[in-house]
Amino acid sequence: MSSSSDFGFKVEPFHGSSYGLWSFKMKMSLMSKGLWSAVSGEEALPATKEQQAHAVIVLSLANSQLMHVIGSETARAASGKLVMFHRTQDMANRLWLKEMFASLKYTASSISGHVMELEELVMKM
């Protein structure tokens, strides 16, 4: 991350993977700029701050993710659309990983290889 002139941080563009990490970084970026309320709804912000928050979120998305937020008019709406889409995918992925974990059989040539496979699945969950 590189510092910008307003003491905020630039969040790497979100390409569709690791949504949880990206959304945490985005929250911290918005908080550092005093814009998080535009997403959380805790307090009303002036229109210019709302527009800034919306722009920060949209400009931190890769082109492949823009389709999810094109119709959004506010930072809260854009964030909500991203949550709806990516949290659903995360849940499906976790269920698939749990199924893989439950059906994992010893097929490696050594026990250490099997343990590594097992640990890799656990880390992904």
Structural account:
The protein has 125 residues and is an all-alpha fold. The protein has a domain at 19-88. 58% of the residues lie in helices and 0% in strands. It has 5 helices and no strands. It has helices at residues 19-32, 37-40, 47-59, 75-102, 111-124. It is elongated and about 60 Å long. Residues 1-5 have low confidence and may be disordered.
Structural class: mainly alpha
Helix-strand topology string: HHHHH
Largest sheet: none
Beta-strand segment tally: 0
Low-confidence stretches: 1-5
Estimated share of beta-strand residues: under 5%
Radius of gyration: 19 Å
Task: Report the principal-axis shape.
Answer: elongated
Per DSSP, the total helix count is 5
* C-alpha end-to-end distance: 26 Å
Q: Give average pLDDT, whole number.
A: 85
Range of helix content = 55-70%
Question: What's the layout of helices and strands?
Answer:
Elements: H1 19-32, H2 37-40, H3 47-59, H4 75-102, H5 111-124
Helix pairs in contact: 3-4, 4-5
Task: For this entry, give a set of tags.
DUF4219 domain-containing protein, mainly alpha, 5 helices
Question: Short summary of the structure?
Answer:
This protein has about 120 residues and is mostly helical. It has a domain at about 20-90.
